[in-house]
Amino acid sequence: MIERVDAFERAVPIAALTGEGIPGLLTAVEHELFETMLPLEVAIPYREGRLISLFHEQGVVETLEHREDCVVIRGRIPKRFANAMASYVQEAEPASMTLLGEAEPPEDSIA
Predict the structure, then answer these.
(1) Where are the domains positioned within the chain?
(2) Is 74 exposed, middle or buried (0-12, 13-18, 19+ CB in 10 A)?
(3) CA angle 92, 95, 100 (to 5 degrees)
(4) Rounded to the nearest 5 degrees, what angle is found at the Cα of 63, between the Cα atoms of 69 and 76?
């Protein structure tokens, strides 16, 4: 069986009867799912309810803040939806929304 598994790049051998290999399979699935997810922080206006719904349905919401004119969402979304959200990513500021990671700390806060 191992010879057949080796023929596939991302194959994970498991034994259904004993459960052997299940932890490795779960790790591989988690890696595949989150490898294609993009960390993202956006301020989406309420009028763009479809994008807010899209983030909730297809992504992983880590934080959600309702403001007067928008919803600020921080989390991860599949890369294929990044372009749909791009116009709502804010420029890097200390407490702003950023694409692909965290905002840089202000220079005077670095020790």
Answers:
(1) 1-35, 37-111
(2) middle
(3) 45
(4) 105
- pLDDT higher than threshold 90 for residue 88: yes
Sheet holding 37-45, edge to edge: 37-45, 70-78, 60-66
Q: What are phi and psi of 96, to 5 degrees?
A: -100, -175
User: In the numeric block, which tokens belong to residue 62?
Assistant: 């880590």
The domain 37-111: what is its CATH number?
A: 3.30.70
Tell me the C-alpha distance between 101 and 83, whole Å: 16
pTM of the predicted model, to two decimals? 0.57
Helices then strands, each counted (H, E), the chain: 4, 3
Where are any strands of DSSP class E within the chain? Answer: 37-45, 60-66, 70-78
> What is the DSSP-derived secondary structure letter of residue 99?
B
pLDDT > 90 fraction of the chain, expressed in percent and rounded = 54
